[in-house]
Amino acid sequence: MNNIVLLPVLIPFIMGVILILFRNSPSIQRFISAVTAFAMLAVSIYLTYIIYQNGITTVELGNWPAPFGIVLVGDLFAGLMLILASIVGVACLFFAFQTIHSEREKFYFYPFYFFLLTGVNGAFLTGDLFNLFVFFEVMLIASYVLIVIGGTKYQLRESFKYVVINIFASMFFIIGIAYLYSVTGTLNLAQLGERVGELEQTGVLNVVAILFLIVFGMKGALFPLYFWLPKSYYGPPAAIAALFGGLLTKVGIYAIIRSFTLIFTHNPDFTHNIILALAGFTMFFGVLGAVSQFDFKRILSYHIISQVGYMVMGLGLYTPLAIAGAIYYIAHHIIVKAALFLFAGATQKITGTTDLKKMSGLLKTHPALAWLFFIAAISLAGIPPLSGFFSKFALILSGIQEERYFIVFVSLLVGLLTLFSMMKIFVYVFWGKPSLSEEEVKKTKLAPLLWPVAPLVALSIIMGLAAEPIFSFSMEVAEQLLDPSLYINSVLKE
Amino acid sequence: MKTNFLMLHTITRIVAFIILSFSVFLFFAGHNNPGGGFIGGLMTASALLLLYVSFDLKTIKRVIPFNYSTMIAVGLLIAIATGLNSFLFGDPFLTQYFEYYDLPVLGETELTTALPFDLGIYLVVVGVALLTILTIAEDDA
């Protein structure tokens, strides 16, 4: 019984509500949001520390015992995701201070920013399937607002598609929940894990498992349901795009990993092989999209898709090493991807465009930006000693151990193409003759734009250099995930 | 020529009061019987909406000078605060408490923490319903 598990959900929620009251005074809003973001970071680190010390921590809302009431469960995986979410939350918020138009600030940007984080954190912590749906909706509704706020024509068109596809996915989610409830008679994740193991009707459960895979795959941008992502992430300003690119799809991936390590573990030959195949397709087609584009933000959006493939590949291989690799990869990806989107925002602010062909020569005028971007870019492509290398290394190593050579081949090829498209950005944006006059260079101050991003790049370097402790932590997370009885026992207390 | 909806205005004045008092009844019926903050809030919103429809926006805005987005925020804060209340006693979030008291006029009454929670919901529902409808209504004005 520990209320601290709730704080990562409650803090952004309460502060978001308070921010509504201060909608007309941007400076107060900024101050409150900054404090809140740091408080969230502190609380999630502390919570993870407690989980690390005492094992899985739960809280039963309203004192109704599980499985009848709703539980929030903090395990190591959830704790790690909370920390990552709050790191990205802080970085994007400070970037937003520099770039968000004051009109957007008045129209509830900050409240919805924190409502989004409420939903994300809630989805990480909840131990109840229906509650997961609710937190997904909280997150999605906030994201609808953030994606459309500003109301340009492009945004309105693309966010309409985004809303439709997500409502569609939510409908499937409800249907899946209903199926699962009719088969097992419970929605508590721990009890589901227990009962699905006892039931032997694999046919129905396979259908339900695939239904959930479709739902979470739609939210997490898996093949062939990723088509909505690149266009809708292109519309909103960089701070929001970075938050979405870093976090939102990863909530879908989190849900996939959670449900396929806790509930649908009875028939891995069927489900996890499908996941592995999807992972291969997702990676490959995602990166092809990135290679074909000539727009900074669009390339990054397509890369989200291809990298989602790596995370799911870890789940598909379903060994401790592979899952640890996937977790490491999620951590690496969230941080680096958010950083890259923020770089896109910074270059957009400097040059006024995201079209690669219209920029050139920023290396001469903005060397700090160029080299920081370079580090993040090669980290994404997986060059040692940065974080991207070690996560891919673990995934590929376990792929070879499991003798899944084809997926290993695909992931190596995708790594190469990733490097190619990141270098394409670097060459077009930073090499060549400077396109900007000196006045234009002086017009935008670079330092305030780089401050929020630099810590993310530093984190990527640290995660690479300190790969040993971080990887052993990922191994612990993976072992906890692969032993569902730990989760089940700590929730049901048997 | 300004049309004068005499019938509508007269009936609205009476009916709005009936709806409002029934919504208060529903609100207090809350948590153990059918009723509660949500349905009470919706009914209040419908009464207010009737006023907006039969009179015009400007008149009613002068009579009811609430800012509905503030109302939503206040309602949410009340609801969360009720949940947080249980932190003081070391219980999990949203634990509810109730006790029977002898109150002067009402006799023996059950006082619960579910009531302020419902009040929060009530304010949120009224705020959301009216804010949505009025935003759309103001669109072409």
What does this structure look like?
- In chain A, 79% of the residues lie in helices and 2% in strands.
- Chain A has 494 residues and is mainly α.
- Chain A has one domain (3-492).
- In chain A, strands 1-2 form a two-stranded antiparallel sheet.
- In chain A, helix 5 packs antiparallel against helix 6 (129-148).
- The model of chain A has no long low-confidence stretch (mean pLDDT 88).
- By secondary structure, chain B is mainly alpha-helical.
- Chain B is built from 5 helices and 2 strands, in the order ααααββα.
- A two-stranded antiparallel sheet of chain B has the order 1-2.
- In chain B, helix 2 (37-54) runs parallel beside helix 5 (114-138).
- The relative contact order of chain B is 0.16.
- The model of chain B has no long low-confidence stretch (mean pLDDT 85).
- At the A-B interface, helix 1 of A face helix 4 of B.
How are helices and strands ordered from N to C of chain A?
HHEEHHHHHHHHHHHHHHHHHHHHH
Q: Which of globular, elongated, flat, extended, rod-shaped describes the shape of chain B? A: globular
> How are the strands ordered across the major sheet of chain B?
1-2
Show unreliable segments of chain A.
Answer: none
Radius of gyration of chain A: 22 Å
The radius of gyration of chain B is 18 Å
Number of strands of chain A: 2
- Count of helices of chain B? 5
Number of strands of chain B: 2
Largest sheet of chain B: 2 strands, antiparallel
List the quaternary state of the chains.
heterodimer
Mean pLDDT reading of chain B: 85
Number of helices of chain A: 23
Strand content of chain B: 5-15%
> What is the percent of helical residues of chain A?
over 70%
Q: Major sheet of chain A: size, sense and barrel closure?
A: 2 strands, antiparallel
Q: How much of the residues of chain A is beta strand, in percent?
A: under 5%
Are there runs of chain B of 5+ residues with pLDDT below 50, and where?
A: none
SS-derived structural category of chain B: mainly alpha
Distance between the termini of chain A: 15 Å
